[in-house]
């Protein structure tokens, strides 16, 4: 599907991309302890004896973490393995107090699934399926702090033991745009499901980016892994730089080393971190302190029943039932908070106008996407902290839908609502903005406009019909935008013959 190519001195190169996304499971406790997972706490404030690997401490799996991982697997149409097992991944590092990480290498909780992406947001019907190899659950490590002392590094174990889902894709992506679309779509699904908040800037979702290059259709090249990339934009930038770097190395006669690299957001470049370890370097073996996970049918049924309407199904419903365009449906379903806000607005707008939701859906969608989002951008706010509620917005749309005010006046009222927080009806009454449908007043305004533009009247009658819009505009201007446009059009047509 992708036509993305790296142009080198020896011709075109294709980029092959796979992503390993680490998503922090939404839970009020860690994977094997009851310690808090609150973000922003003081260093080492959220550390239990288990997290610190004190002697004699044994891990106990957090049922909610397992449940959330299973629900995530179901949301991407993946195989849920009723039997899975924890393994110890052994390596030494100062932020890993146990000397090993509890993970799942050989028998993961979730098997193969897939994700449908739309790489081009302006063309949402053009899609591609990205395979997902597995989702396994594992505990996070702590964090080294290098800026607290001139000669020593400190260790913060707040993240030690935090539950992660590692979501491993197939190497099915062929461009930075596809990788960006994949991360956005995955983050959207996680937020819909409620299994991860997707806040990449807080580290609760991050991606390891695997990149290799090859001649189009050729054998797979040697890949590098760029670790812990924490934004969609940085994922795309890391791919662009790393693919270009690999092409330059190969065309100069060099070889690509399988290694782990880091991305520098300041320079937009990657740099070598360490040679890439193979799985056997970690000396994996089953964790002797943990029994295998065995899931029964009742647990799986409860997980499936708890899933919400997911973005693809919601988008389809918006198009087929509500009659929205594919673009508008895509915008409204991309984030769960947007979809919830729209549906609250839609329900209240329909109730205020006494109509079915399908009859007011286009009005509500168009206003939310164009006017409301525009107003939010002006004041630097999001829907979550909007100064105007969906109930207030529904009242405004009802005034427009009932003909009390025109759409043009509605935009003016919306600006005032954002500035003052007042309700639409109060603003309309206070400022005398009610739309005029009195044909007598409108006729008088039309007569004045036609009298002042006699030459254009003659041109119109001679066949220049495009001037009709000019007459409408001049009449609306003369009546300060308060005239009912439908009545204006009717009067003008009668007057102009």
UniProtKB/TrEMBL annotation:
* Protein's name according to its UniProt entry: Aspartyl/glutamyl-tRNA(Asn/Gln) amidotransferase subunit B
Q: How does it assemble?
A: Heterotrimer of A, B and C subunits.
Query: Which Gene Ontology biological process is one annotated for this entry?
Result: translation
Organism field: Croceibacterium soli
Q: Which residues form the Asn/Gln amidotransferase domain?
A: 340-496
SUPFAM superfamilies attached here? Answer: GatB/YqeY motif (SSF89095), Glutamine synthetase/guanido kinase (SSF55931)
State what this protein does: Allows the formation of correctly charged Asn-tRNA(Asn) or Gln-tRNA(Gln) through the transamidation of misacylated Asp-tRNA(Asn) or Glu-tRNA(Gln) in organisms which lack either or both of asparaginyl-tRNA or glutaminyl-tRNA synthetases. The reaction takes place in the presence of glutamine and ATP through an activated phospho-Asp-tRNA(Asn) or phospho-Glu-tRNA(Gln).
Q: Which SMART domains match?
A: GatB_Yqey
- Gene name, per UniProt, is gatB
